[in-house]
Request: fold
Amino acid sequence: MKELPDLEQLQGRPVVFYDGTCGFCQGSVQVVLKYNKRQDLYFAALQSGVLEALVPGAQLPDPMPDSILFYEKGKVYTESEAALRIAGYLDFPLSILAVFRIIPVSFRNFVYRLVARNRYRIAGRTESCMLPSPEQRARFVGGF
Reply:
């Protein structure tokens, strides 16, 4: 069993949970790392067990999505809401993607699910999570 980080240090910090075996998700994490110059986002693979340890079971979505989740201020966001909230933490010009939250959630989630269903076809599947650079490692929790 993987050793989990001190979960108290994550309280109040935004955490991006991603599919660690998805090439598309790992590429997206690389983009977020590059454009989050404030370095205020943390990352954990969905497979790491950090989500279940950090968030009470009653707050976890059912069914559990397998692509991306975003934990912010004690709440868990899924699908397009997760992606657009993450965009709000990015530097310009990617930060302007957050304005798409004005689009009705049903349409946003339709587009999100279309991409999510095809993500392995788009970017493939990997057997393991990416290895972050030494300077990025402090932002990954629960192993990588």
In short: The longest strand covers residues 68-72. The CA atoms of residues 4 and 58 lie 20 Å apart. The mean pLDDT is 82.
